[in-house]
Write a structure and sequence with these properties.
The complex is a heterodimer of chains A (336) and B (530). Chain A is of the alpha/beta class. Helices cover 22% and strands 25% of the residues of chain A. In chain A, β5, α1 and β6 form a beta-alpha-beta unit. Chain A starts with a strand and ends in a 19-residue tail after the last strand. Chain B folds into 3 domains: 142 residues, DNA ligase, ATP-dependent, N-terminal domain (DNA ligase i, domain 1, Orthogonal Bundle); 197 residues, DNA ligase/mRNA capping enzyme (D-amino Acid Aminotransferase, Chain A, domain 1, 2-Layer Sandwich), CATH 3.30.470; 125 residues, Nucleic acid-binding proteins (OB fold (Dihydrolipoamide Acetyltransferase, E2P), Beta Barrel). Chain B has 19 helices and 22 strands. In chain B, the strands form 5 sheets. In chain B, strands 4, 5, 6, 7, 8, 9 and 10 form a 7-stranded mixed beta sheet that branches. Chains A and B meet through α5 and α7 of A and α5, α6 and α18 of B.
Amino acid sequence: MVLQFTDRGIYCPAGDFHIDPWRPVPRALITHGHADHARPGHGAYLATRTAAPVIRHRLGDIPLDTIAYGETRRIGDAQVSFHPAGHVPGSAQIRVEVGGEIWVASGDYKTVDDGLSEPFEPVRCHAFITESTFGLPIYSWPDQAVLAADINGWWAENATAGRTSVLGVYSLGKAQRVLRLLDPSLGPILTHGAVEATNRVIRGQGLALPDTIQVTPDLDAKTHPGAMVLAPPSALGSAWMRRFGAVSTGFASGWMRLRGVRRRRAADRGFVISDHADWDGLNSAIRATGADRIFVTHGYTAQFSRWLTTQGYDAGIVETDYGGETLDEVTEEDPA
Amino acid sequence: MKRFADLFTALDQTTKTSVKTAALAAYFRDAPDDDKLWTIALLSGRRPRRTVTTTKLREWAAEVAGIPLWLFEECYPVVGDLSETIALVLPPATRESAHSLSHWIASLRALDKAEDAEKKAAILSAWDQLPPTERFVFNKLITGGWRMGVSQKLMTRALSQATGIDEPDLTHRLMGDWSPETTSFHTLVERPDPGASLSRPYPFYLAYQIDGPPEDLGTVTDWLAERKWDGIRGQFILREGQHFLWSRGEDLMTDRFPELAQLADFLPDGTVLDAEVLAFADEKPLSFARLQPRIGRKTVPKKLLAEAPVILMAYDLLEWEGADIRARPLSERRALLEGLIAGLPGGVPLRLSEAVPATGWPDLAAARAASREIGAEGLMLKRLSAPYLAGRKKGDWWKWKVEPLTIDAVMIYAQAGSGRRATLYTDFTFAVWKGETLVPFTKAYSGLTDAEFREITNWVRKNTKERFGPVRSVAPEHVFEIAFEGIQASPRHKSGVALRFPRMLRWRRDKPATEANTFEDLQQMLAQYG
């Protein structure tokens, strides 16, 4: 086996390294900066150049080496390269080749171009490790343009009615993606500190975002009427939000596709926007790899692997610690 | 349909009552009468007769979506709603339509006698011309079970705003045995026919569970304490020689309890009682489990009548000599009720729910503690000076239920939840020890915090022994205290018992699995409380 599944994470014996391990290891290759994939405590890290700033921002001063997309590096007896996964800026699928056999660990990915992350590139391989966060046919994402119109329409309507719009978004990836969809002519865009910290990192690496104003104690609905506020989901409904007076709350997540989830969130609006592939995205990505063997990690593993088996793949389930809480509103780092 | 779907979306997108009321009122001002009537019907739990089975809907939806049926069935528990699952898996519509809500309802009713092929063609054609929300609404019209986050009270308020008719008046007009197929908006709402009101019940007064010590309610003698009987709350109406029995959910139950028909011979005309329908034999109430087989049946076989005879345990008198007396204080209504029942000959299936005597709160605490022995769920406390209000209101009526029964059990199976909880393990099977083996006896899926569910989910993932479809057997390590309201012998369950309202009270991290309760403990509880 080019890659093995251990209780520390995905392991490559030929190169003696782990991919996105959840327990400390000597050498870790990291697909992207979300907390369930990039964890502290490893001896050495390798990630893409565009992923590195966020990983450093989150994990501090770690021994982190970087690699360009498409660049091949030899580690032990393995040839390793990183390829765009389209999940968040800098996110990668990791291709590992040993003795002519090619495996790809895709981390988290999406196939639509969000206009911010490096677009997903299919990588031909023999074995493909895929997530299945949204691996059921009920999940299908609307067009980016439709989403932008929905969010801006909601914002404009709130501004007219004298309400502040507060949108719950995860601070890495989702927040920046939403920022690029917003129409800044509608009003000021305010950000929670957690979102703004990631914005600074993303801007620092040369990605353009519209102007934002970080929320400080002297700032409220009177100083910035008709504003759009981007905040982590945990801030929705908290005391922090009171300063904005009359608000309409929204939440941006793939789970908003389901009415039951929208209702339990008790937000006024749910926008279906995810940095994971939808059903069609997963299926087309898997087809494009040309792989026969598919390993299904976090998500609807049982259903999705059964489906893949009926489609002629040699598919199995792999237990991991990734994205275990994707539906959970408490964890700020929820990557859905 | 678009107008109705837009209303649905507006209601669905807000949690604020005022916004919902405004949206509904606007709808009631603008919509055509037939649509208004159907909307009132749908929001008060009345739905068109089902003309297409859900089995067929599932098959057709999977076929149109190009997925195997098993995969569709896997989606259903995740979404938690069949109509929505269908709407989500279908490919986008290729046509448009401008038909109204009542048009689509009529088209569904027209399928009543149709062959399957014709039904299929009609449903597929509808799916192909409705955008997502309208499609969802359309499916809901077929399957029923409509929940739009609008209470009947909110709907009535909106209708009141739109029509200028008083809310209590409307509430009363909308109750009773009507259907959009036999009335019109004008007849039902705008010009009610006095003859139609014969069967009309009063809104039920509902109590909250008491949230502090009962002493906070003041002097005990200001209150009437009664047993909280474990049956079906009902309203018995006798007007112009005809009797009607309504459930709290506004279900007409008259024919299900034929033994109550004789009450018409003993009670004066113009009498309305608030009561509990209770299985009752040998001068004592039988368990709810004995009553249960009678709930679903429209006609009752003799055997069942003999096994679970029912009586009305009367709580209150709402109408007396044809006059609505709800505004009079409970003390006066009770006095009339007592007089009414005292005059009845023995053997008539109507009894007074006796007041529990008390000179101080400790008397009631003791009575409450003894509830289970006499087959009651606890006490009801009602202020003697209070009128009979409509709906759930705080202040004058309180439930004071007994503490639940509890048992410590070992978790042995886990299954993922649905909807928001789809990636969490939330549905567990619990077992008690019988010698060296664990005997499963109940499932439970509520009572833990989100954080605890997350923690147990991670544990389940790492400690799975076997998978059986969506169910995993796990190492028998964790002990949970299971709370429940009642226990019954049940031949359908492997353990021989069935629990009422089981839930996880707490995670007993302090207890090793070996210290969980035993099957003998469970048998003892069954003997004592079953």
